[in-house]
Amino acid sequence: MRIEKRRYQCDRSGEIFEKLYKQFEWAGDSKIWTGLWVGQKYLDVPQEQLRTPIIKADPFPLPNPKPPQAGAMINPNAPTTTWEAVD
Fold it and tell me: How far apart are CA 44 and CA 36, in angstroms?
């Protein structure tokens, strides 16, 4: 008695294969099945560009973001000598 091997048709090419694989693609942060059964020769690597990018959280705000008062400001460019009246 002869046992025949099962053969399956690839959804992408129509070729006959002994084994088919599920085709996955990125959607958000996980892979989803596209619904295609393909032969190993036609199996694609999921595209990383379709992943949701991981974005860092916003930085914490400053506790008191007001600038210093005008009277309290020190001018580093001020002259160090005092002016005297000339007779």
Answer: 11
Q: Tens digit of pLDDT for each residue in 17-43?
A: 999 999 999 998 899 999 999 999 999
Give dist(CA 41, CA 23) in Å, integer: 12
* Residue 27 φ then ψ, to 5°: -145, 105
| Residue 47, both tokens | 């595209």
Rounded to the nearest angstrom, the gap between the alpha carbon of residue 56 and the centroid of all alpha carbons in its chain is: 10
Rounded to two decimals, the pTM is 0.57
Q: List the Cα angle 74/75/76 in 5-degree steps.
A: 110
In contact, 23 and 36? CB cutoff 8 Å: yes
Contact 33, 4 (CB under 8 A): no
Helix (H, G, I), strand (E, B) or coil at 26: strand
